[in-house]
Design brief:
Elements: H1 2-33, H2 41-78, H3 86-114, H4 121-127, H5 130-144, H6 152-184
Subcellular location: Cell membrane
Cofactor: heme b
Keywords: Cell membrane, Heme, Iron, Membrane, Metal-binding, Oxidoreductase, Transmembrane, Transmembrane helix
């Protein structure tokens, strides 16, 4: 029965963790875009985003990561033979990369606080796609284990995911270009 408790809270933990990571980088984007606002809005927004980032990271994202890792250790302790399976090694590599991403977000948060962040909002939008890719890979490995499908259906699903990501990026680019066009247009008299 312990296995099911560990598994249930492992799932809850990673849902919370990913939700935090997705929203955290979105806040970074807004934080960077606040620099384009006139005062006093700029200062007010930056202060608010900084507070939201700290709370999100400390109250949601970190605990989500800790619960995920603790419950994974619990799962492995109930079935230690799983450590001999190749799919788990690949999944753990993605998890290590995700932990690195998590800590890199903390670094970006500190840079934003000090006004030293060199990332543009467009670059941060790209960075925000990284946990999505890791989530897909981790879930696919957890579900299919060593039997990851390589048939046409799997490739169609993969292509749809890539198309969605590309569409999101193209839409963001269109919005940015439209905004630039509006700013450069000269009002006619």
């Amino acid at each position: 029965m312990a296995y099911y408790w560990f598994k249930a809270f492992h799932i809850v933990g990673f849902v919370v963790w990913f939700a935090g990571l997705f929203y955290l980088v979105r806040l970074f984007i807004y934080h960077v875009e606040a620099d384009e606002k006139p005062e006093p809005a700029k200062s007010i927004l930056k202060e608010q985003y900084q507070l939201m980032e700290k709370r999100l990271y400390g109250i949601i994202t970190n605990p989500g990561m800790y619960v995920t890792i603790a419950m994974a250790i619990g799962l492995i302790s109930t079935e230690p033979d799983v450590l001999k399976q190749g799919w788990l090694h690949i999944k753990l590599a993605f998890v290590v990369a995700l932990i690195g991403y998590h800590h890199y977000c903390k670094r970006l948060m500190r840079q934003l606080e000090k006004g030293e962040c060199k990332w543009s909002s467009q670059q941060l939008r790209g960075l925000n796609e990284a946990p999505t890719v890791m989530l897909v890979a981790i879930v696919m490995l957890a579900i299919f284990k060593d039997n990851l499908p390589t048939d046409l259906t799997a490739w169609v699903i993969f292509a749809m995911i890539i198309a969605m990501a590309a569409t999101i990026q193209l839409y963001a680019r269109k919005r940015r270009l439209d905004k630039e066009r509006v700013l450069t247009e000269v009002p006619q008299e």
